[in-house]
Design a protein that fits this description.
about 375 residues, D-Amino Acid Oxidase, Chain A, domain 2, 15 helices, single chain
């Protein structure tokens, strides 16, 4: 029977959130994941807005709250490690607002996995090679020749979505590179000179480097830098690319790059996915596969969880018409996605300033962040708690 069976491609945040939400509406999820096992780590995000509200409805909010990064300052250093200025935690808390939580992407995924693992079939190391639709069902062919059949196919397989390529066309049609690279990896220990209760950052024109104390003895490193040729940077691999980009930075970065475990690092271009429609028949894209807003927008995880929750609601309201449900879901969510993508493009200078003027314009409000009018301005600009 395929009436309420759903195949979900991707066991990341979007895919696991979809499995959890649809299972609670009596769907039978089959989750297929290309990676051989679950991933961890990733970069830090602020989880808020529609994601926070959806997490509460889905019963995973306590798990997320237990894993959020504890109190942290934002410490800014010069390239040699000398202090520049610090934004104290009390101010950071005000800017985040009551609904914002700082989390590692991998921790959001862990909470979702623990909530849904005994309610859905999840197969790792599994890829798809073809998708075929009929009036009442959709079929996917796996790399081993197996065919799986369901009423709905959810492509939640990220920026480089296979579902999108098979059903909607090549990635190049929809991908918009923002001219930057990002690398992120966890650390075995926090380096000397980095506070255990701070995100410690060095910024130069065109590049930013952060060591984050995440609490509980955990730490991570994050790199963002500008480039005219993202594809060439990807081809170099993370270690070689970072060594070239961050030459001359004397504090922490050289040691971290030399000792990094490349296989555990996230390394890719900063990109957005822009599509006129996210569904076709009984196939729907969710999360980064549909609308990647980029880390510069800072809202991708929230949109993934919130989007999955809204997808479940739309399907509940249209039990006999999947295409109609998907159209209604998209119409409701698209305005916020468009807004977040615009914010991501506008925030490029915040993450990796393109010139000294952009660097000065970024730093000036941060230096004054504790002043109440500036705190309110930063809160409105970053918009973490909108929902």
């Amino acid at each position: 029977m395929t009436a309420k069976r759903v195949i979900i491609i991707g066991a990341g945040i979007a895919g696991l959130a979809a499995a959890l939400r649809l299972r609670r509406s009596s769907w039978e999820p089959l989750v297929l994941e290309r990676a051989p096992s679950r991933r961890s780590g990733g970069y830090a995000v602020v989880f808020s807005g529609i994601g926070h509200d959806a997490a509460e409805r889905m019963g995973i909010l306590p798990g997320l709250q237990a894993r959020q990064v504890g109190a942290f300052d934002l410490a800014y250093l010069r390239a040699d490690g000398r202090p520049r200025f610090t934004v104290p935690y009390a101010t950071v808390r005000k800017v985040l607002g009551g609904g914002g939580m700082a989390l590692l992407r991998g921790d959001i995924e862990t909470v979702l996995y623990e909530a849904v693992a005994d309610q859905a079939e999840i197969r790792f190391g599994t890829t798809i090679t073809a998708v075929r639709q009929e009036a009442e069902a959709v079929e996917v062919t796996l790399a081993d020749g197996t065919v799986e059949r369901a009423a709905l196919l959810v492509g939640a397989d990220g920026l480089h979505s296979t579902v999108r390529a098979l059903v909607f066309g090549p990635e190049a049609q929809y991908r918009r590179d923002l001219g930057h690279m990002v690398a992120a990896f966890t650390l075995d220990e926090l380096l000397a000179g980095a506070s255990r209760r701070a995100f410690t950052t060095v910024t130069r024109v065109g590049q930013t480097f952060t060591v984050a104390g995440l609490g509980g003895g955990r730490a991570a490193a994050f790199f963002t830098y500008g480039t005219d040729d993202p594809a060439a940077e990807v081809d170099k691999g993370p270690r070689h690319a970072l060594q070239q980009a961050y030459g001359g930075l004397t504090w922490a970065a050289p040691e971290l790059i030399t000792n990094m475990r490349e296989k555990d690092a996230y390394f890719d271009s900063v990109s957005q996915i822009v599509m006129d429609q996210w569904s076709q028949g009984r196939v729907v894209l969710l999360g980064d596969a549909a609308w990647c807003v980029s880390l510069f927008a800072g809202y991708g995880s929230a949109l993934a969880v919130g989007g999955a929750d809204l997808l479940g609601t739309a399907l509940d309201r249209h039990p006999d018409g999947i295409p109609a449900a998907l159209r209604a879901w998209e119409a409701g969510l698209r305005p916020e996605v468009i807004e977040r993508q615009a914010k991501g493009r506008a925030n490029t200078g915040l993450h990796a300033p393109r010139n000294r003027l952009e660097l000065a314009l970024r730093d000036f409000p941060l230096r004054l962040a504790a002043v109440p009018p500036v705190t309110r301005m930063l809160t409105r600009h970053l918009d973490f708690h909108k929902g």
